[in-house]
Amino acid sequence: MDDPYKTLGVSLDASHADIRRAYRTLAKQLHPDLNPGNMEAENRFKAVSAANELLSDPEKRAQFDRGEIDATGRERAQPASYRDYAEGEPGRRYGRTGPQPGGWSAEDIDDMFGKMFSEGGRSGGKARMHGRDELYALTIDFLDAVNGTTRRLTLPDGRSLDVKIPAGTVDGQVLRLRGQGNGGVNGGSDGDALIETHVTPHRYFKRDGQDIRLELPVTLAEAVLGGSVEVPTPAGPVRMRIPAHSDGGGELRLRGRGVPAHDGQAAGDLYATLRMLAGGPDAALDEFLRNWKPEHPADPRRTMEAGQ
Amino acid sequence: MITIDLLVAQLSGLRRQDLDRWISNAWVRPDGNAGTYVFREIDVARVRLIQELRDEMRINEEALPVVLSLLDQLYDQRRRMRELSAALQRVAPDELRLNLARHLARQD
C-alpha cells in the first residue's frame, strides 16, 4: 500500500480537519456505490478509506509516523456495500417497478430492441415472437400493373422471390408475401415480406380507377367523315369506329377495355378523347377552306366572355 | 434479517430518530410495520450508504432524495444490463454474441 499521506494528497503536517476534508472530497468522487462497475474507483476508494482510518486516529497516525506500523496492517474488511445488493435481485426492493420479480415491460424491451420485438406484451426469455416484416420497393411498368404479371425479386440476402403482381395493382400498393420476412423466435411465426409497388407512368394511358383514359389523335377527315381506326388498349390494339361529325374533345368509350376484372371488380372501360390534328400544310385544303361557305356559320367562342 | 434495535446498535453514529425519519420518508423500506420492522441485508447496506452520504459526503437530507432517486435509477439500469446479459448467455448463439461484442467494440 502507498503512503497514506500521498493517497489522501495531504502534507505530513496536515491537521485533522485537513485530513477529513481531503477524505470527503475523494470519497465523493470514488465511493463505489456511486461508481458501480468501476474497479479503479473501487480500489482507490479502499485505499483512501484505509488511509483516512489510519490518519484520522491520532494514536495510529503517531505509530505510523514513528514507523511502528505500516499502512497495510490496518486495512479493515469493508462491509458488503449497497451496490452488492442493489444490482442484483434484492435491489428490486428500491427499484422503479417495486419489489416483485418480473420480466421487462414492453417499454423496456422497446428501448433495447426497437418496437417490433415487444409484440404480445410482456416477454420472458422464452417468448414466442413473430418475425420482423421486411419492406421492399418494386418498380413496375404501367401495363404490368394493369394486366398483372409475375416478377422475380432478388433479396439482399441472396434469396429470390417470385412476386405475383395482381391485375389492377395501383401505385403505392403494398403486396404482402406471408412468411417471407425474418424468421420467428421460439416458434413464433415468420414475418412477412412487404413489397411497396411503384408504377411508372405510361406514355399515353392514364389510370382512372378501373378505367383507362387516353387522348386519341384523329385526322380532320376521320373526325368529319367518320371511319374505323385502330386504338391501343392495355390488352392490345382494337378497331373502333369513329362516328361521322365527331369533334375534337369528344369522348368515345370502349366498354370493358380498361383495367381487367380483379378482386370482384368488373373490368373498367377505356375512354378515348379525340384530338383533331390538322396535319401539315396542304394547298388543296387551303384552297377548299378559302372557298368554303359553312352551311350553319357559328362562333365556337360565343360562350366565352371577353376578358374572362 | 435484523430488528431496528440491533441495527441501531450495530451501526455507530446512527441515531434511532434519524432512522425512523428515513423510514417514514421511504428512503429505507424494511419489512413489517412500525414496532416490528425487520431489515434485510440490502436495507442495512442502504442505511449505511445514507449515513455515508450524509456524514462523509455532507449531502444534507434535503438533497438526499434526489441522490437516492438517481442511484435507484442507476441500479435499475445496471440490473437490466445484467438481466440482458444473462438472457443473451441463455438464448443467443455464440456467433451472435461474438458479433454483438465486435460491433459494440467498434463504436468509438
UniProtKB/TrEMBL annotation, chain A:
InterPro entries linked to this entry: DnaJ_C, DnaJ_domain, DnaJ_domain_CS, HSP40/DnaJ_pept-bd, J_dom_sf
Keyword Chaperone recorded: yes
Biological process annotations from GO: protein refolding
Region (Disordered): 60-104
Superkingdom of the organism of origin: Bacteria
Coiled coil ranges: none
Residue ranges, compositional bias (Basic and acidic residues): 60-77
Signal peptide: none
Single annotated GO MF: unfolded protein binding
Keywords: Chaperone
CC annotations in GO: cytoplasm
A Pfam family recorded for this sequence: DnaJ_C
Domain J, chain residue ranges per copy: 3-68
PANTHER family found in the cross-reference section: CHAPERONE PROTEIN DNAJ, DNAJ HOMOLOG 1, MITOCHONDRIAL-RELATED
Record-given protein name: Molecular chaperone DnaJ
Organism listed in the record: Telmatospirillum siberiense
UniProtKB/TrEMBL annotation, chain B:
Species of provenance: Telmatospirillum siberiense
Superkingdom, taxonomy of origin: Bacteria
Name of the protein: Chaperone modulatory protein CbpM
